[in-house]
TrEMBL record:
UniProt keyword annotation of Signal present: yes
Listed Pfam families: CLCA (PF08434)
Lineage: Eukaryota, Metazoa, Echinodermata, Eleutherozoa, Echinozoa
Organism in which the protein naturally occurs: Holothuria leucospilota
Name the UniProt record assigns to this protein: Calcium-activated chloride channel regulator 1
Signal peptide start-end: 1-25
Record keywords: Signal
Amino acid sequence: MSAACIFLRVVIVAVFACSLKDVAALTKPSSVQLKDNGYSGVVVAIHPDVEENGTVIEIIKNMFTEASSVLFNATRSRSYFKNVTILVPDTWADNDTYDSPKNASFEGADVIIATRNPRFAPDPYQQAAPYTKHYEGCGRQAAHIHFTPEFLLDPEPTYGSLGRLLVHEWGHYRWGLFDEYPDVIGDPDFYQEYYFDPETNLFEATR
Ligand SMILES: *[C@@H]1O[C@H](CO)[C@@H](O)[C@H](O)[C@H]1NC(C)=O
Ligand SMILES: *[C@@H]1O[C@H](CO)[C@@H](O)[C@H](O)[C@H]1NC(C)=O
Ligand SMILES: *[C@@H]1O[C@H](CO)[C@@H](O)[C@H](O)[C@H]1NC(C)=O
Ligand SMILES: *[C@@H]1O[C@H](CO)[C@@H](O)[C@H](O)[C@H]1NC(C)=O
Ligand SMILES: *[C@@H]1O[C@H](CO)[C@@H](O)[C@H](O)[C@H]1NC(C)=O
């Protein structure tokens, strides 16, 4: 497949009757599929408490478009994002360009845009960093990726390119990868500053 095959279709849908149940179900259905190298059925849902701002939608589109190219390069042409559905809450104005949500829901979303979660962003004076809620560890899909709207709207993103950042989070989400650095906030019980290699008896970087 050549890079010219990378095509990302973004469909924006709106929820009319929004039922918000507990998002943190342990095993969660997801419609993501990998077929012919393309990830399809990815759902990004905006929480009803997020203030209406069309720029958020534009940024999500651009982030996935860039991430598709980053993923394609990083996996040596093995995968890219084929289509993404953005679920707009019923607290936002309706728009003729929006489709019906079919069975997409906030609870089932792969990526959520919502206000800060104090569990992962305890300091209210610091910008909430994106995170991926893990449950089952390596090789298993996580619950969801969380971005705050403030993080997405920041004109100078803290961690640089949003597309690269999304691919990093996608590694946690889809493949259950762990961070290659110690995460004091997300993993307070098990984080390690260094890795002690019992064979060489040397401390090395966390991996
Ligand atoms: C939504 O419906 C499609 C087609 O019926 C199905 O393949 C998919 O798994 C469903 N998604 C969820 C999150 O239930
Ligand atoms: C995404 O692509 C899959 C696989 O080609 C297709 O079944 C699905 O209908 C597409 N979804 C949207 C929202 O375009
Ligand atoms: C959307 O967010 C941007 C960046 O924070 C801001 O400049 C703009 O005024 C907001 N637009 C609306 C309609 O609130
Ligand atoms: C992916 O690789 C192509 C070809 O080398 C390059 O043009 C493109 O900028 C790369 N994309 C990213 C996001 O790095
Ligand atoms: C509907 O959405 C489009 C594309 O995001 C935007 O350009 C347009 O201003 C929106 N229309 C209304 C009435 O909000």
